[in-house]
Structure formats: C-alpha cells, structure tokens
C-alpha cells in the first residue's frame, strides 16, 4: 500500500445523504455515492450518521440493530470498501447493546480489503428542546465507553467522533496528535445553522489537523430537516470544499506538507502546558 510519505496527497470524500425510512433505498443511495467518490479519486470516504435509516420513530433504529460482525449493513460496508479499494468510515449504524431497548450508535471503519479496522460507539448523546422541537438520544441509545478511538491510514492517524461529540473539545485533545478527524453527523437545521461550521473549524484550528465532516442534508421523509454542509477543513481552518444541501460529495486532499507547514509556523501543539 502506498503511504502518504511516498505521495504527499491523500484524497478524501465526505458523503452527504438525505436518508429515508427505507433501509434498502438508503443503501442504494450510499452505494451510488461511494462509487462516485471512488471514481473521483477518493482513497477514503466517510458516510453520515444514520445513513442507513432516518426512522419515523426513534425506536425504529432499535429494530434494525445488528450483532457485531453480522448483518446486512455491516456486509454492505465491508463489500463496498473492498469493491472500490478504499477506506470506508461507515457513518453510524445501530449495534446491539446490553439494554434491550437501546442500541450503540456506532461508527465502523473498513480498510480497502474490506476488513474492519476500527470501531467507535458514540459517547455524547444529544439532547435539545426549544418549543415543539425536542430530541433525547438517551432514550434509545446507550453511550459508549470513555476511551477515544482512532486508526492508522496512509494519511496518518485518524480520530473518530460522531455528531454531538463536536461540542466537547476534550475528546479531540484526548485523541492526541492526529492528521485527520472525521465527524459523521446529522445536525438539525436549527443547531447546524448556528454552530456547525464554527465548531468544525475550531476543532481543525486547535488540533492543527484536517477535519472531514459528513452530514445528513435536507428534508427527510419523516419530517425532520437536517443542516447538511458536509465539508473538508484544513489545519489552518480554511474550508476546502462544502456541499450545502442534498445528496453528493465534499472532496479534497489531505497534504502532509500542509500539516507540517502549519505546525511549524505556529507550534501551538508543542506549546501546550496542560
């Protein structure tokens, strides 16, 4: 496998979907977009949170839960990574938890051979209430453990996080020095319009790394509206590509030389005292 030290740039794609209440339809949409990403040169693709289902009720995803290593969603992700020969960060899918009524909201990563390379269960569970708009993920989701999760790819160390995690900078500090942070998400229109880009750019700037955020983006069959704006941000906080709404891709390159230039010019990571 060619490494980034042999080739300075590594192409990545954030896949944006507008997922429905139908699993088969959602997998078809994801398959088409993964193929498009590969055709445009992506060596890593990231799907959004809940790419496989945006149910009519919160507990619809519980009925769809899979055992680790077994199930149609995991099979789809593994086969897609192998078919296109890329790293695939599988958004999130529902995996069994010890609680019969709750699932883990899990990111699984597959390498270009289709083997599972990493797993991260969402730690921070979203809760929001303003007027008639209300969400409480803890009703159907069990939080994962407190240990941050990352994996090694040709572009370097890749840190894993999911949606609401974005509001907790201590998680990203705990990951240590990374080349790339990925953020599969389904930010609501209300919170996304206010904070999404600001938080993503802050995480890139303070950790001096790339951030690749794959979002749900549009009006869903279940009536929910998500913010979208999937994007790639460089270590200086510049937005390299962004897809405001609808299914599609935000695509660009991770550059080792750009990482090194930013960290040498402003060595904030070395100046930390806490």
Question: How is this structure best described in words?
Answer:
By secondary structure, this protein is of the alpha/beta class. It has a single domain (9-265), classed as Carbon-nitrogen hydrolase (Nitrilase/N-carbamoyl-D-aminoacid amidohydrolase, 4-Layer Sandwich), CATH 3.60.110.10. Helices cover 25% and strands 28% of the residues.
> How does the overall form come out from the CA principal axes?
globular
Q: Which percent range fits the helix content?
A: 25-40%
Number of strands: 15
Number of helices: 6
Mean pLDDT: 95
Described by strand count, sense and barrel closure, the largest sheet is: 7 strands, mixed
In short:
With 274 residues, this protein is α/β, with parallel strands linked by helices.
Distinctive features:
single chain; 274 residues; alpha/beta; Nitrilase/N-carbamoyl-D-aminoacid amidohydrolase; 28% strand; globular
């Amino acid at each position: 496998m060619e490494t980034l030290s042999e080739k300075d740039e590594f192409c990545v794609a954030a896949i944006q979907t507008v997922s429905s209440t139908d699993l088969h339809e959602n997998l078809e949409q994801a398959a088409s977009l993964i193929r498009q990403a590969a055709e445009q040169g992506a060596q890593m693709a990231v799907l959004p949170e809940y790419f496989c289902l945006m149910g009519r009720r919160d507990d619809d995803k519980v009925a769809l839960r899979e055992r680790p290593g077994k199930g149609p969603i995991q099979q789809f992700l593994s086969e897609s990574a192998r078919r296109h020969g890329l790293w695939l960060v599988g958004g999130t899918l529902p995996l069994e938890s010890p609680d019969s009524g709750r699932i883990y909201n899990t990111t699984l990563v597959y390498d270009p051979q289709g083997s599972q390379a990493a797993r991260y269960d969402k730690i921070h569970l979203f809760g929001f209430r303003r007027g008639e708009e209300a969400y409480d993920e803890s009703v159907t989701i069990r939080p994962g453990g407190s240990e941050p999760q990352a994996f090694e790819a040709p572009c370097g160390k890749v840190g894993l996080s999911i949606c609401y995690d974005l509001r907790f900078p201590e998680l990203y500090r705990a990951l240590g020095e990374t080349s790339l942070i990925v953020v599969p998400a389904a930010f609501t229109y209300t919170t996304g319009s206010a904070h999404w880009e600001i938080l993503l750019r802050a995480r890139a700037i303070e950790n001096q790394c790339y951030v690749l955020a794959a979002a749900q983006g549009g009006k869903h069959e279940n009536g929910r509206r998500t913010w979208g704006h999937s994007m790639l941000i460089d270590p200086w906080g510049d937005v390299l590509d962004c897809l405001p709404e609808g299914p599609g891709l935000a695509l660009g390159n991770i550059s080792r030389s750009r990482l090194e230039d930013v960290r040498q010019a402003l060595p904030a990571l070395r100046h930390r005292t806490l």
